[in-house]
Amino acid sequence: MATLNVLILVCLGYVVLLFGVAFAADRLAATGRSTWLRSPLVYTLSLSIYCTAWTFYGAVGYAARSGLEFVTIYLGPTLVMIGWWWGLRKLVRVGRSQRVTSIADLISSRYGKSNTLAICVTILAVLGVTPYIALQLQSITLSFSIFAEADPSGIYNEGASVFWVAAGLAVFAILFGTRNLDANERHHGVVTAVAIEAVVKLLALLAVGIFVVWGIAGGIGPTMARIDASEIGTWGVDRGRWAAITFLSAAAFVCLPRMFQVMVVENDDERHLRAAAWAFPLYLLLMSLFVVPIAVVGLDLMPEGTNPDLFVLTIPLAQGQEGLAMLSFLGGFSSATSMVIVAAMALSTMVSNHIVMPIWLSSQGGGVSVSGDVRDIVLFSRRVSIAVIMALGYFYYRLSGGGAALASIGLIAFAGIAQILPALVGGLFWRGATRIGALAGLTVGFALWVYTLLLPGMGGSFLSEAVMTHGPLGFGWLRPQALFGIDGIDPMVHSVMWSLSLNTAAFCIGSLASFPSPLERLQGAQFVNVFDHSAGPRGWTGSVAQSEDLMIMSQRILGAREAQEFFHAEAERQGGRGYLPEPTPTFLERLERELSGSVGAATAHAMIGQIVGGSSVSVEDLLAVADESAQLLEYSGQLEEKSSELSRTARKLREANEKLTQISLQKDAFLSQVSHELRTPMTSIRAFSEILRDTEGLQPEEQTRYAAIIHDEALRLTRLLDDLLDLSVLENGQVNLNMGDGSLREVLDRAISAALTGSDRPLRVRRHRGSERIPLHTDLDRLGQVFINLIANAQKYCDAAEPSLTISVHDVGGQVVVDFIDNGSGIPADAQSMIFEKFARVGSDKAGGAGLGLAICREIMQRLGGEVSYLAGQEGGAFRVSLPLAYKQAAQ
Amino acid sequence: MSAGPDTEPDRAVAPPPVFLERQSYRRRRLSDAARLLPILGAGLFAVPLLWPSEPEEAGAVSMSSAIVYIFCIWALLILASAGFGLAARAHGGSDAQGPERD
Question: pTM higher than 0.80 for the full model?
């Protein structure tokens, strides 16, 4: 007879073996020589944590009570695996591309990295899984007690054994589940240990099955006959339960945190799914192949009242097969331990990432980069979480006292976890699914599950008999197991139907009625169209100064060496040489994913947000930035316009300044010329008046002559001043034109007579009076002034012996011109450009002019709209007056 | 000299073939079948819902035949799934990309 001590020794040896395997696998993975660790076989075997002790021992009991119904627990996952193309493939791809760490992280990440949702899912998972852990503890304790009963010499304390089992499992999970904060969140050691346990439990069950069928029943035929003859010999499954549990197990297979952990988080290669698609159903088939024969043989052989849940263990013991019993015990032990370890790991990740870290972060205020080591805090919080979860399971077991109430908790937990399904499936396939919808669905489903299944399942201590039969406050339609008065359904089916359908309805209505935030919409597109693009949402911008803070923070989460390597690689990728890359959006996004592998998407987002700060955290901000940049564009357009206007003004100013300088120069020159012109007559007036005053005995002729000189000079001064006044009036444009009608001939007549009267030098004027009959509409006096000036000039300056002036009027290019041509020597070519300037005089000052005449002429003609110019190439001095075109046209 | 530029655009402009090659066509139908498999499986596993659920009813199905039915369907699904997996692998590397876009 196997003693309890031997059992404990074997047990400890087995655990040591698992430790060794896990340790070796971690070492192998660290050195990168772990190709076989990443094979589809290990992946498939790790999925087997679906088969817990509840299924290892419980399936036989289940079959003994309800026939083939137990198989539905396996059929659901089989269908999910076979249909991997529909859902799992996408789930795994999303999980890998978003670096998801848990199911709560996935849901939170999909719905705009909402931590509220993550907390809801985490709480749901803890509530659903803790009793499940208690169930595993119970199964291990029960199997111990079987051996204890068979070994009367041993001293067996149930309570103590539960405690030690729980503590041992916690230590194992802590040692291998929280060794490091792997960026990928993969635990090769644990996965390998789980795979070995999967082999052990399969072998154990197959061995017991083969022993039962061939060793006891005597082959397949007799076994079948025995089955048909037994109390479960005919098909008698409740139809509703058959369908509901198949569906439920399929849903739970995807949603259970531990399944998500091994299926998505620990997945190394998507192609493993293809192999697992047939290998895992095969594993499930083998696990359930001998369940009914064992149950039937157990019912036959074992005495009345034996717990059918432990037939796997008790049949070999009763048959004296101690080795087989030991193997069977190890199988059950493996089932329980692998499930507990992975579940505790998955839950602790969720609890620490979504509950502990956010609380810690907010308690730290803005100082991620200045306070303690985040890496240690994350690991510590995970370790504590594992311990707390195991403690919860332990206390749950102690408080519920074990027994049948606990046995039914498996399906209840499935139903609770399945409430995540609508949010999960909706999030993967429907872009319109929103955070509000997911929250509404989860809340409704969770509440209904608690009310219709969890509380009634816990017995009378939570819901009184009155509430069960008459409804709360007498509302009959609110009875927990007959909602809306629909009675007579199996409580399980009833609860699943109502909770999941109302959950889905709330999810859809909430999603349709609400409007998602931009981040949600981006993430939604990322998830739903994960095969089209696998880039993350852009949400970060930063300045170089923040790289150092990011580095400090990353070192605390990823570890100093890993973070430095990561940053260095990033810097090289950006083309730099140092250790601090530019915080480009791409880099920040990659860093966020790297961090989210350790602390979860929402926390990583918040941490980077704290450092990069207000520069740009969310898509809302990005949109605001987009708005701003649109405004900026508009504004810069305005600015550009203004600046071009300014430059135009500046150019004008510059031009004006140049003009002013020029004018100022002109004015200086003018003033000096004017003063010179004024000084000459003033000098002679002064000199002659002094002679008149001081000289005694002047002859009257002399007096007259000197007085005449003074008079002449005074006249010349007056004329000069008149001319200056005239010129300034003309130049300032203040002149008033006295427009009148007349003919060119009259104007010429008057000008010639005015110019030649009182002249001592004869000037012969030749005219062609016929051509002068041109009517004019202009200021006739001013035009006459121009003519007088030109004629007087000819009279003064013509150096011919018999001076003559020819005035000819003709048409040049449709314009009437009047030419004044004398027979003198004309004006030298180098002076021709000067003659219209003020005070310009050609040759000596023999005529006593001030040199303003032609300047005045030019001004007058400009005012009148015509032109006066020197006509080069004639025999003598020649001036041409072009009459304004408008006058001629008016004349016609 | 002139042949090069003339033929190049022709090839580029030519419309893609309306029908897939025979092999890719087979591969796509294969993946269609693989996708339909879980629906078939669910339907077959739902067949027991038609059986009388009370053991006392006439024509009650014996447990052994129920076991044979369920496990045969199960094994069939596994074989089909494995077959599709092997066939997909046999179609080679292009498979990794091809059906995903389908």
Answer: no
Contacts of A79 in chain B (CB under 8 A): 38, 41-42, 45
Residue B82 with chain A: CB contacts under 8 Å: 278-279, 282
Instruction: List all residues of chain B from 46 to 65 with a beta carbon under 8 Å from chain A.
Output: 46, 48-49, 51-55, 60-64
The answer to whether residues A93 and A106 touch, using CB atoms and an 8 Å cutoff, is no
Rounded Cα distance between A139 and A340, Å, is 12
CB contact (8 A) between residue B78 and residue A246? no
Q: Which residues share a beta bridge with A881?
A: A818, A868
> Closest Cα of chain A to B18: distance in Å?
24
How confident is residue A372, by pLDDT bands cut at 50, 70 and 90? low
Residues of chain B with C-beta less than 8 angstroms from the C-beta of A80: 38
Q: Which residues contact A667 (CB under 8 A, 6 or more apart)?
A: none
State whether residue B20 sits within 8 Å of chain A by CB. Answer: no
Which residue intervals of A529-618 are DSSP H helices? 544-558, 560-573, 585-599, 601-612
Relative to beta strand A764-767, strand A804-812 is parallel
Residues 6+ apart with CB under 8 A from A274: A40, A84, B85, B88, B89
Residues 6+ apart with CB under 8 A from A53: A135, A136, A139, A140, A332, A335, A336, A339
Judged by DSSP in three states, A869 sits in: strand
* Tokens (6 digits) for A605: 């987002």
What is the DSSP secondary structure assignment for residue A737, as one 8-state letter?
Answer: P
On whether any CB of chain A is under 8 Å from the CB of B29, the answer is no
Q: How far is A226 from chain B (nearest CA, A)?
A: 9
Query: What is residue B45's three-state secondary structure?
Result: helix
Per the structure block, which two tokens stand in for B40?
């078939």
**Pick from A227, A243, A278: CB nearest B82:** A278
Could you please report the per-residue DSSP string of A766-829? EE-GGGG--EEEE-HHHHHHHHHHHHHHHHHH--SSS-EEEEEEEEETTEEEEEEEESS----H
* Reported confidence tier of residue A136, pLDDT bands at 50, 70, 90: confident
- Interface predicted TM-score (ipTM) of this complex, two decimals: 0.77
pLDDT tens per residue across span A683-730: 888 888 888 888 888 788 888 888 888 888 888 888 888 888 887 887
Nearest CA to A282 out of A350, A354, A220, A198 is that of: A198
**Long-range CB pairs of A684-687, under 8 A, 24+ apart, other chains included:** A684/A709, A684/A710, A684/A713, A685/A710, A685/A713, A685/A714, A685/A717
Helix and strand numbers (H, E) in chain A are 38, 7
The reported pLDDT for the residue numbered A653 is 92
CA A296 → CA A292, A411, A447, B71, distances in Å? 6, 23, 39, 17
Residues A596 and A605: beta-carbon distance below 8 Å:
yes
Q: Is the pLDDT of residue A58 over 70?
A: yes
List pLDDT tens digits, range B75-99: 998 898 888 888 877 765 443 333 3
What tokens were used for A550? 């990011």
Handedness of CA A104, A109, A111, A114 (dihedral sign): positive
In this structure, are residues A89 and A273 in contact, taking their beta carbons and an 8 Å threshold?
yes
Model pLDDT for residues A545-603, shown as the tens digit of each residue: 567 667 767 776 676 677 778 877 877 777 766 667 776 777 777 777 777 776 666 66
Considering only the beta carbons, identify the residue of B34, B38, B70 that sits closest to A79.
B38
C-alpha A890: how far from chain center: 75
- Does A275 contact B at CB distance below 8 Å? yes
Return d(Cα A178, Cα A381) in angstroms, integer: 10
Chain B contacts of A75, Cβ < 8 Å?
Answer: 45, 74
- In the block, tokens 């508009």 appear at A634
Task: Kindly determine whether residue B38 and residue A83, on different chains, have CB atoms separated by under 8 Å.
Answer: yes
Contacts of A232 in chain B (CB under 8 A): 63
